[in-house]
Amino acid sequence: MPSYDRLTVLDEMFLHLEGEDTHMHVGGVAVFKGGPPDYEDVLDMVRSRLQLVPRFRQKLAFVPFGLGRPAWVDDPHFNLEYHVRHTALPAPGDRDKLNRLAARIMSQQLDRTKPLWEIWFAEGLAGDRFALISKTHHCLVDGVSGADIMSVILDLDREPQRSPVETWHPRPEPTADQLLIDAVRERLTSPAEVIRTIQSAATDPGGVPARVMESARAVGAFLGNSFAAPPTSLNQSIGPHRRFETVLADLNQLKRVKNAFGGTVNDVVLTVVAGGIRRLLELRGEAVDDLELRAMVPVSVRADHERGSLGNRVANMWASLPIYEPDPVERLRIVSDEMKDLKNSGQAVGAQLLTTLGEWAPPTILAQAARVVARQRAFNLVVTNVPGPQLPLYTLGREMDEVYPVLPLTDTTTLGVALLSYNGTIGFGLLGDYDTARDLEQLAEGIEKSIAELIGAIEEGVDL
Predict the structure, then answer these.
(1) Is 169 among the residues known to form the active site?
(2) Active-site option among 16, 138, 169, 241
(3) Rounded to an integer, what distance in angstroms lies between the CA atom of residue 417 and that of residue 386?
(4) Are residues 317 and 450 in the same domain?
(5) Domain membership flag for residue 134
(6) The whole model's pTM is what?
(7) Residues 143 and 18 grouped into a single domain
(8) Domain co-membership, 305 together with 442
(9) Both 350 and 240 in a single domain?
């Protein structure tokens, strides 16, 4: 058996989705209180944690002729200073300059010949603060496991965690011939897994029809709602460059809205995003009175015992955003009802089953499927909300004050909204295409106004 791990089907799909203008990395912008540490101290801190995340010293190895999924192998030329970079903002180091820096960093693809991550240490923020801007390829990490890795890199206490640095010796790289032989051997032996699956099903023949029907219904629920996104200015061809804006919200205020009008915090989030998009499209002169958008909402299917592991364990649901509804409270009611129906529909299970079916697809077929997915317009935008730690985190004795996640844009999606809750706040990271989302700050203002409208409705005693 080979001594390396292969990418899962979903991990490999994110490689195939990447193109000249579509960068499949996720990331985050974390802002810290206090004077910036020395760059050498940042390097030492990251170096001491790498033994907890060995994948961060591994790179991709591709099987010749595409006969197998790529593998993770140790990078014998790993250079920490390449991955942890040092920069500074020009004065006055305000939020706009930080957002521009983040946008430029997110506009550059990761080098596939090296481990697929970077951390940028940025000095020069106003108010005696600094930032760490992270970028990791989506084939390596999803949003939930990314939050876990962030917790590994950071500290729970102000006093820095001291870990002895273990000497790292990379394992020899497999040759192209070894990769090819291993891939062919795995392909030839995979039918044995089918036989074992059939034998397992035969031990409970009465349960097979019920399981098959349940799977069929789940896949049907996913496919039946996947191809109905209406045309809007949010869906145009994108270029390689990005814009980035942020919104910081009070988590308790969103919970207050949820408690007053029902639903979940995620329902409130989708509602205020819908309100922000309504305002954005109105300012663009587009009709919104009859408009209902489709949002792809990733949901984690990561089991508790998998927390902290890398790789992707996500499925998707397609949520309708009632852009047509001008009243914020009624908009929340519509979203809440929609999300209840989605959770009962089995969409996420269907998406996961389709991914599982990909285990049997040859890599060339998987690549073609990824290109088809990139070209069709199944959704207007992605909105992902990841729960983060509700306690302060530190690095080198400095407290993390704010954090904003970043998600990638696909081929015809000019806008993505990612959220991460942390220590009583929710940070909205808004990523847009540089040319087609020049008014991205209008979305940020619209989200802030939508939150204020819901809070105002509570204070006015409005009933749902």
Answers:
(1) no
(2) 138
(3) 11
(4) yes
(5) yes
(6) 0.84
(7) yes
(8) yes
(9) yes
Judge contact between 49 and 148, C-beta under 8 A. Answer: no
The verdict on 259 and 167 lying in the same domain is no
Q: Tokens 């920490």 map to which residue?
A: 80
Q: Residue 326 is encoded by which pair of tokens? A: 């001008």
Beta strands in 89-171 (DSSP E): 117-125, 129-137
Are the C-beta atoms of residues 423 and 301 closer than 8 Å to each other? Answer: no
204 in a structural domain: no
Tell me, yes or no, whether 235 and 359 share the same domain: yes
Query: Is residue 119 included in any domain, yes or no?
Result: yes
Any idea what the CATH number is for the domain that residue 163 is in? 3.30.559.10
Give the pair of three-digit tokens for residue 59: 């790179």
Task: Tell me how far apart the alpha carbons of residues 102 and 134 are, in angstroms, rounded to a whole number.
Answer: 9
Measuring CA to CA, which residue among 406, 381, 431, 428 is closest to residue 150? 406
Smallest CA-to-CA distance from 31 within 365, 456, 430, 429 is with 429
Residues 357, 267 share a domain: yes
- Within 10 angstroms of residue 88's Cβ, the number of other Cβ atoms is 14
Q: What is the CATH number of the domain that holds 341?
A: 3.30.559.30
Same domain, 232 and 141: no
Q: Is beta strand 129-137 parallel, antiparallel or unpaired with respect to 242-250?
A: unpaired
- Tell me the C-alpha distance between 56 and 392, whole Å: 25
Per-residue pLDDT tens digits of the chain, which is 464 residues long: 577 888 888 788 889 889 999 999 999 999 999 999 999 999 999 998 888 888 899 999 999 988 888 999 999 999 999 999 999 999 999 999 999 999 999 999 999 999 999 999 999 999 999 999 999 998 887 433 444 456 677 899 999 877 777 889 999 999 999 999 988 888 777 554 344 344 444 444 444 444 444 444 444 444 444 456 899 999 999 999 999 999 999 999 999 999 999 999 999 999 999 999 999 999 999 999 999 999 988 765 434 444 444 444 456 788 899 999 999 999 999 999 998 877 665 544 444 444 444 444 455 544 554 555 555 568 899 999 988 889 999 999 999 999 999 999 988 999 999 999 999 999 999 999 999 999 999 999 999 999 999 999 999 887 65
Query: Is residue 228 helix, strand or coil?
Result: coil
Q: Domain containing 162: what range?
A: 5-176
Omega cis (within 30) before 92 = yes
State how far the Cα of 188 lies from the Cα of 356, in Å rounded to an integer.
Answer: 19
Number of domains in the chain: 2
Which of 97, 167, 84 is CA-nearest to residue 133? 84
